[in-house]
Amino acid sequence: MxxxxxxxxxxxxxxxxxxxxxxxxxxxxxxxxxxxxxxxxEHLDKEEITVxxxxxDHPNPFIDLVYDIYRFFKWGRFYDIETFFxxxxxVIFEDDFSDSFSYFQTENLHNFKEIPFDEFxxxxxxxxxxxxxxxxxxxxxPLPDTEYITYFPGNLVGTRSEVEKIxxxxxxxxxxxxxxxxxxxxxxxxxxxxxxVRRNKAVFFKVLTTFTCLIIAFLxxxxxxxxxxxxxxxxxxxxxxxxxxxxxxxxxxxFLVGHIFYSFGFGMKFGIPNFNVFIITLLVLLIxxxxxxxKKVKGFKLPIFIYVIVIGIMFSFTFAAGDIxxxxxxxxxxxxxxxxxxxxxxxxxxxxxxxxxxxxxLGTYFLAxxxxxxxxxx
Length: 378
Hints:
The protein contains eleven helices and eleven strands. It is α+β, with helices and mostly antiparallel strands. The strands form two sheets. A six-stranded mixed beta sheet has the order 6-5-4-3-2-11, with helices on both faces. Strands 1, 7, 8, 9 and 10 form a five-stranded mixed beta sheet that branches.
């Protein structure tokens, strides 16, 4: 057994020495859907290359929306994953070749093609593999009058099936649990709102909804992401305190501490946003505070002022995930929903009652906490 294993290692090493090198070129106008990761796996007779793209966008926006939903439930992912093989003398595209005339064509896709190395363009000792269509078919020929960005393979190892288990919630147990827990959050949120609208106490369901968000974050966290888990924990405490009129200040303090944890978590995970984002965010929130709330909050002027500053900083940090395809939209949305929910809560408490306030305040709040919890996945 040891001899067989040693022989396998030697053969794999020799294959890697003689394996052809390649680079992938993608049209610059599709860079938002660009290459996320490239995996390789050495078989005895060929090398398997699996390319993970952030997404793929159909040229028709409506069809693209429907297609995204279909892909999410069909394959369990929004990522686009394509695979080809490199043999001794050629590149084999089993189902992802297209000799396209336009990047946005919707016909003549998913073809088989085996192409010898000498029919590819070269960049030094590397063959160039072009992405030729919107759904990331490959070709050995560039499109006319097109600027390209280049991606190079790294050291990631994995077969197509192994890669699917990383990115598809249908094949990844952790992501599958996360998906079902997210549905539970939405259902619990509806139940909570139902009881609140009927003027019934809903503290159990409200806390349980946030607790489920906390479980989602905990399940997907490692290292600094536990700061986000801590933020959700203090949000849970805030939910509990705010159900009692005389505990409003305690609830506000709990959420304030939660926002501090969120700010550190987002900052350490995603980076620091542009300074202008801080200025604009804080300026807008302070205008709302002094223009709408300041004269009405009476004994809470200083606590709410501090809270506005802290939640504004948290909101600013949600814009730091600019290089991560999905979360760069979802995290600022979460921050914005949180700010909106808290502003309406304060407006209703100190200024005047709002019709359907429970639906709006809790609906935006629960969605914000869910999106924040899901940010730990990326």
